[in-house]
Design goal:
Number of strands: 24
Structural class: alpha+beta
Strand content: 25-35%
Shape: globular
Number of helices: 9
Largest sheet: 11 strands, mixed
Length: 443
């Protein structure tokens, strides 16, 4: 296996302004371009600097790869998350502009290992411990190659990838990265957070990527679909409870602690066990307020989230009813109850029944629940509900008490950071979260 070239979708706008900080050549004729450029989508065509082109795509390739970079203006990061914002971003490699959904898509093309240096610096602070950085490099590299293999297999099979199941009583949907057909992955949290060389990397990150070059988590002869999230909340979730119903032996429910916490039933598919677990804070690697460790994992905007291991959110009746109607597109009337129907092994809800005065509907999976019950995304779907100020059967207030941050599958970033701080080696960190996997150098 040779080092792959990756294509990453960065931004999607009718107009894209960018700066070429060195000389780039426009394929296929090698016309040189430098400095500030503007592309528009008008009348079904790509316009470059207010001149119409007949090209379906534009590809700008650097003359000197290592010295060159380009800057994209107003890239949206954290799309539909609570901290969504715009920023200018700088990238190595080539820039491709394509037409997609009557807009322009900017795509960055570069070698996998250079992409990883950025991902590790974007997903967490470049000051993280060396063992955490190595563990994350192998996890991210494995996930990426598994996704490209999966995408190619899907396209070659010609099968329609079904992610929605709907009946009058139930709406179930899961979200993965299969909606990206024209590039390998996107640059936002939907795939892996990638922000080019905008955030300065360090020698430690570069060293961690170089020392693990070509190393992958393997399940037999297959590359592991190695997932990760910020905080598992004490127990990690299984793949099939979040995405398609496919069991991966290396993505199982793992207690994020050297031993099972005393006094707790860790089968959180059981409602009583889940409620006790979520309302308390059992010991876990990711149960930490160690600012030094958290600053290693969390970039500045991530640190705006203070409570991730256990959190609480309060909704007034009118606000919750309006939110659910707007996010679901259905009028439930007054919200009478939010009833857990089915939980995964980390306590994350796979299905919840929303009982309204006009409509009752069960929804899932975990991200659909998080989207409908929040302006952006709930921190996780591992939560319990308290109803207060009930008048004529209608609660005036709902309190959601929850655990963890993210889907909880695979590597728990905060837990892994704490393991690194406690002296665990990267192999131990990986094999804690990916039970039964092996680590192999494949290129």
């Amino acid at each position: 296996m040779n080092e792959p070239q990756l294509s990453i979708g960065i931004m999607y706008q009718p107009e894209i302004i960018f700066r070429l900080n060195e000389r780039y050549l426009l394929a296929p004729n090698g016309v040189p371009f430098e400095k500030l450029q503007k592309v528009n989508y008008r009348d079904g065509k790509i316009w470059l600097n207010d001149e119409m082109t007949d090209e379906e795509e534009l590809l700008f390739e650097p003359v000197r790869y290592h010295e060159a970079s380009f800057e994209l203006n107003d890239v949206t990061i954290g799309i539909k998350f609570h901290w969504e914002r715009k920023e200018d971003q700088v990238f190595k490699g080539s820039l491709k502009i394509i037409i997609e959904n009557e807009k322009l898509t900017a795509i960055n093309i570069l070698p996998l290992e250079d992409y990883l240096v950025s991902v590790i610096s974007s997903e967490m602070s470049a000051t993280s411990s060396p063992e955490l950085l190595k563990a994350h490099a192998i996890t991210s590299r494995s996930w990426l190659l598994a996704q490209t293999i999966k995408s190619n297999d899907l396209q070659n099979s010609g099968k329609f990838y079904q992610t929605i199941s709907e009946t009058p009583e139930e709406f179930i949907r899961w979200y993965d990265r299969e909606d990206h057909l024209n590039f390998d992955v996107c640059g936002d949290d939907h795939c892996q957070r990638y922000q080019g060389i905008t955030r300065q990397s360090t020698k430690l990150v570069e060293q961690a990527v170089e020392e693990t070059r070509g190393m992958l988590l393997m399940d037999g002869e297959n590359v592991c679909d190695a997932r990760f999230s910020k905080s598992c909340g004490g127990i990690s979730e299984t793949f099939e409870n979040v995405w398609e119903p496919e069991v991966h032996s290396y993505l199982q429910a793992i207690v994020d602690n050297p031993e099972t916490p005393e006094g707790f039933d860790t089968d959180l598919t059981n409602e009583k066990a889940a409620e006790k677990w979520i309302r308390n804070a059992p010991p876990a690697f990711c149960n930490t307020r160690d600012k030094e460790v958290l600053s290693q994992v969390l970039n500045d905007y991530d640190q705006e989230t203070k409570d991730f291991y256990r959190w609480s959110l309060t909704y007034q009746q009118a606000d919750l009813a309006e939110l659910i109607a707007r996010k679901s597109g259905k009028d439930f009337g007054a919200i009478l109850d939010l009833i857990p129907v089915e939980r995964g092994k980390s306590g994350r809800l796979k299905k919840i029944k929303i009982v309204g005065s006009k409509l009752t509907l069960t929804i899932g999976k975990e991200l659909e629940i998080r989207k409908i019950l929040s302006e952006s995304h709930l921190y996780s779907s591992a939560f319990v509900v308290d109803k207060l100020n009930i008048t004529d059967g209608i609660p005036g207030e709902f309190i959601l008490t929850g655990a963890g941050w993210g889907h909880g599958v695979g590597l728990c970033q905060i837990g892994a950071a704490m393991m690194g701080a406690k002296g665990y080696k990267y192999e131990e960190i990986l094999l804690h979260y990916f039970k039964g996997a092996t680590i192999s150098k494949e290129y």
